[in-house]
Design brief:
Blueprint: H1 3-9, E1 14-20, E2 29-30, E3 36-37, H2 39-51, E4 54-60, H3 63-68, E5 77-81, E6 90-92, E7 97-105, E8 123-127, H4 131-139, E9 144-148, H5 151-161, E10 165-169, H6 170-179, E11 184-185, E12 191-200, H7 204-219, H8 222-230, E13 235-237
Parallel strand pairs: 1-4, 1-5, 8-9, 8-10
Antiparallel strand pairs: 2-3, 5-12, 6-12, 7-10, 7-11, 7-12, 7-13
Helix pairs in contact: 1-7
Length: 243
């Protein structure tokens, strides 16, 4: 039944699934051997089980590195945020989960609303090449984006250099705000980062299969069960998109 799909995705009998270790909501823990665990790895496992093939998780430290590797023959599916810049080489399913992204401002900041962020003189700290960084690059017109590698380095930079705001996923900012007395998370969101399943452009039949799988995973409650299983705060089932 899935012979053509397996030929595209796992011709050697093993599905290589790339996971982004920086996304602590999708990769929320490690197993006994240090293997990634969480909603993302479990979704990959469900796909491998559906195809009746083995699973090999291929970890990447950042989403940018994962996306760059689309040019190499190192993974078959990638669990990553769907962004236009990445879609040049990757065919994405619609989202199966989404994560709210917003801003943290330092103690004493006069900034109260989202509308006050995109102004001259405002410097926004952001993790380089994250999905929300790509969104900000397309939409920020007056403020300045200042990049660091990863969440911890971004927070450290914002504090050290006195930046006016930090952009990140709301669940991460909740923990950062607890560790930085007086800092505040702005109400609302500037985007919702949608996490999808991608495959190489050449895998046309597999792309159709992955879209069908995502639709089914949302409809049957699989995604909701995985979120509950791993106890992840701030991760929501994405709205079902119909063609």
């Amino acid at each position: 039944m899935y012979d053509a799909i397996i030929q595209e995705l796992a011709p050697q009998g093993t599905l290589r699934a790339a996971v982004n270790l920086l996304n602590f909501l999708l990769v929320s823990s490690r197993g006994p051997q240090g293997e990634p665990q969480g909603v993302g790895p479990d979704m990959a496992r469900a796909i491998a089980d559906r195809l009746g093939v083995g699973l090999q998780l291929v970890p990447y430290a950042t989403p940018g590195e994962l996306a760059d590797a689309a040019a190499d023959n190192t993974w078959d599916i990638g669990l990553i945020g769907a962004e236009p810049a990445r879609a040049e080489r990757i065919t994405f399913s619609t989202a199966y989960v989404e994560i709210e992204a917003t801003y943290l401002v330092p103690p004493g900041s006069p900034i109260q609303t989202m509308a006050e962020i995109d102004r001259p003189g405002v410097r926004i700290g952001v993790a380089a090449r994250s999905a929300y960084d790509l969104w900000l690059k397309r939409h920020i017109q007056h403020a300045t984006l200042v990049h660091a590698e990863g969440f911890d380095a971004t927070l450290e930079m914002v504090q050290r250099d006195g930046l006016e705001a930090m952009a990140c996923l709301r669940p991460r900012l909740l923990s950062d705000a607890e560790k930085w007395p007086g800092s505040r998370i702005l109400p609302g969101q500037f985007t919702a980062v949608q996490q999808s399943i991608g495959t190489h452009k050449r895998n046309t039949q597999a792309a159709v299969f992955l879209q069908q799988f995502v639709n089914e995973a949302i409809d049957t409650g699989l995604v909701a069960r995985l979120i509950d299983k791993h106890g992840v705060r701030g991760l929501s089932v994405a709205p079902r998109v119909t063609a």
